[in-house]
Amino acid sequence: MSKESIDSHMLRVLHTLLTESSVSRAASLLGQSQPTVSLALRRLRELTGDPLLVRSGSRMVPTSHALTLIAPAAQALSHIDAILHPNTTFDPATTTGTFRIGTPDYLDVSFVPAVIDAFHSAAPNAKLEFKHLMMIDGGYENGLETGLLDLVIGNWKTPPGHLHLQPLCQDELVCLMRNDHPIARGKLTKEAYERAEHLAVTTVNTTAWGTIDIELARNGLSRTVTTTLPYFGMAPYVLVRSDLLFTTTRTLASHYASVLPLRIEAIPGGAPALTYYQLWHDRAHRCDAAVWLRRLVVNVARTLSA
């Protein structure tokens, strides 16, 4: 038997023999016969090149070398037990982990602050990082696959089929414009909408602009986009100083209409609501911490919808 072939069973026998200094007591604790443990002791002596246990009167005592083996044997057994019997219990109240969520910035006005509040209330010692979908190397799919992200939130007409998906909430499309826009209140007709110049937000790795145009087309509408921006948070400030129209969600529009001289008009003929989802990779599907994070996000979404 070579030194490289020692297994977890022999390590456990070694540790028990050295801590008990008795073949009979070790056999009892290990649930084995004394001859079996005696045979194991002989093999361990061959492996280590040391007697390990020697007689001192009527009892056995560990040698000096044996005493140096107790701690590393215990540590090795601890690591083996951690592999074979991992502790998967997750407690948000005590975790110090870091959680990462990828989101577009059109969720910033209400959803993200609500998630942050709920997160730190439940996990006061943990860290939460939001990543803009534009800033994720390789895209959000790669971020989920590699573990750079635990979760992605957004809206997609056709999300990737290999990712897990869960609907969160819905939000309707509306049109946002400045208060003194040439189009009078309540006069945003189909013709006026299609004749106007529009502002849109285009983001890398997302299809927000495409999603809106698809929904408009389903309602028989089209728009002429003459200005594009990389961030949703910039759009309302551009509207204040222009005659552009901005098609966006009611949640975002309502927020900025309450703090800037902007008003909301209904989409001519109405428009279907957009559905928001959370996406995650199979690698985190059964992770207790990731499951807890997804449940927290769902609860926030339901609370805001209510």
From TrEMBL:
PROSITE patterns registered for this protein in UniProt: HTH_LYSR (PS50931)
Q: Which is a Pfam family this sequence falls into?
A: HTH_1
Q: Does the keyword Transcription regulation apply?
A: yes
InterPro entries membership = LysR-type_TF, LysR_HTH_N, LysR_subst-bd, WH-like_DNA-bd_sf, WH_DNA-bd_sf
All copies of the HTH lysR-type domain together span 6-63
Which keywords does the record carry?
A: DNA-binding, Plasmid, Transcription, Transcription regulation
Any stretches that span the bilayer, and where are they? none
PANTHER family in the cross-refs:
HTH-TYPE TRANSCRIPTIONAL REGULATOR LEUO-RELATED, TRANSCRIPTIONAL REGULATORY PROTEIN
Q: Family membership, please give it.
A: Belongs to the LysR transcriptional regulatory family.
Q: What is this protein called?
A: LysR family transcriptional regulator
What organism is listed for this UniProt entry?
Paraburkholderia largidicola
